[in-house]
Specification:
828 residues; alpha+beta; five-stranded mixed sheet; 51% helix
Amino acid sequence: MIPIVTSLVGALLVGYLPGALIYRLPIANRQKRGALPAEERAFWQVMISIGWSLMIVLALAAAGAYRYERLLAANAIVTLVVMAWQRQQLLWRGTAAKITIAAFVPLVVLGLGVWRFYPASEYIIGGKDPGVYINEGAAIDRTGQLFRVDKTIANVPEASRSLFFHKYPTDRYYGLRFMGMFINDPDTGEVIVQFPQLLSASVAVGFRLAGTAGATKVVALWATLGLLAVYFFGSRLIGRLAAFFAVLLLALNVVEVWYGRYPNTEVMMQAVLFSVLLAAARGHQDDDPFFAWVAGGLGGLLVFLRFDAYMALAGIAAALALRWIVEARAPRWGFTSLVVLGSLLGFAYYTGPMTQYFDLYERNLPSLSMGIGLFAVAAAITFGLAAIRDRLAPMAMRSLPMAAAGTLIALAAYALFLRQPEIGVLGAWDAFSLRTFRDAYVGWTVIIAALAGYAMVARREFWRDPAFFLVFAGFSFFFFYKIRVVPEQFWMARRFLPVILPGTLLLTAGALFGPSTPEHRRTVRRGVGAAVLMSLIGWQYGTAARPVAAHVEYKGAIRQVDQLAQYFTPRDLVIVESRDASDLHVLAVPLIDVYGLEVLVLESQLPDRRQFEAFLTQALSKYSRVFVIASGGTDLLSRRITATSIAFAPMKMPEYETTAWNEMPKGAREKDLGYSIYQLTAAPQTARGFDLDVGYLDDLQDVRLFAREVTEGRTFRWTSKQSFIAASGLTGNERQVEFVMHNGGRPAAAPPATVDVFFNEVLLGRLTVVFGFQTYRLTLPAELARAAAASPDPAQLRLVSSVWRPSEFGGGPDTREMGVMLDRVAIH
């Protein structure tokens, strides 16, 4: 009970109380924001609290001083000071709008979020962006730092670094700690994460509130806040009923469902950006100065989430410039000052600690001097147009909304019907990106309605919400011109998530429902018709998303990784086999960031033996024990290194299929991360012959065989085109090499199953393998056996197999080039 109460108190201090008090401060025309609907007031109190808390997390962690307790203390102090200072002034005293039946709608939206986004994926493994965000959040909570030193790296002697770290040909960083983490200086152990850290800062809070499970659920919280932000913005733009149906479709859409449970920055950007758009509109178009400060604070914070936040801020700035040119209404100081401050701090962040991440953008951006020149030109044009405001304004007010709509519709028509790829210039996934969005995610009806909606809503509301229309058009042009991401489903769909998908659905609802204002009342017939049509579209979306909604990515990973971590202590060194051996490197990330263990990932399946012997001797003088986690095969042992098996554990979890950009995933597959653990000692091996049960505790003897499998009660591995077995412990008296193999039921149309066997590069013979597990023997010349026994390294068996692909013979999607099933290898 006490941990639950503690978490609830912490959640209130982080996510509600600071914002509630700030919102109630008797400043900046409090009566105006008090007149907002009660449900929107509650939303703002939560968003302001979260934004405030994340600013504190980033500031403390940047100084290397973050602790969850310090965050709570800071928020508690602010809460108490404001309450003591203002006291009775914080009460509304009947001046705020009362709760009405309309408050039920956002409660339904909240319920939609809980229904669609929970349970969240258990993405705590590394290897891709999502795992980086979650594990970086855990590392921020554990270390209190954004910019860290990793003592494990610093403890690796310079002579041994190439075993674990590859020096990259760049002056921006030394190499990779693991995927998603750069090493800046191997001497000091200075590292930096690959991606901006705002999402991870929120994960750090979730990690402390509810452990690893709480950290993974943060993305679902952001997705739910995204639905609410889109609803409240849409309510102002197109009315509550239309906004609700737009959000209903958004919650049912497969992209939103997938990324609402899959760690990513785009879903957080959706929540924060639509909040910024709404706050900017309230602050400027509705003349509420308080919301100008809110928009500026959240907009400045957005810079630390994704670099393309600058594009969104540029769209808002352009809208404010248009407003000044046409209406002579200047941007509010609260918005301008905070956005400029956040942008400058963000620029220092990207060009300083995050220079590796910024490199991709820097190569496509103008130079600093050119950027200043372009800004000066834009400023000059703005002031020049403002000078002729009296003549320009009437024409701009009439023509600009339709000009924007006409341009967007023309570009969409070109992309939908005419645009074609060009070899070496424009990839098919870029050329057909709008068609992919149409066919895979929204449908023809929505595309047509959204384009019509842009024209219809812009004609009425452009000057009431110019920022939305410019930001939506800007993001659409930028990402439909080029996706700028690996073209895989659903991976590329993340580009549509922050603005394009919710904007499309809002505009669709605006077109179908039409206006509902005192001047233009919507007819009942039109409202019912629109509701029915959008419900049918929603039914289609829900049906398409049903497999994703029933799937939990990496379900069970939290428990299984925790079980793995229990084998080790902080006094141990854990070595994980290389990325070219298997996917086990993804387990290194949570072992380091969540559990604080000392872990290294090998650079190669074939590390230099003398170099590794020297490293192991040095490591055993610093650490209590040294372990290896392996699965795919690493040629690591020698006569001076002994490996003792500690554990053999299966680890399987569901992983959704990854497909090309033009093919939708069909469902979940099983990801096998089964592993073996060995303890290494620097002790001579005993010569006792060689007998290897392939697929069982064989991970340090084989290389380039496929993952272990089990059939007929036997463990085995498929050979590849060229596979290797490291045979240690030979006495010199061996005269025969023995294999137990099976051709795997190879189709008659496939090449015959043959294996050429080389012993230390001497051909022993060719074996023709037939159906069923059978024993095959080859003679081993005496001189080869004696030479192998005298060598400090294991003998090498090289197996060259004729291969086949099951996918080419009706064997499903398996595209592996497989040789034969290898069950046992012995040298007698």
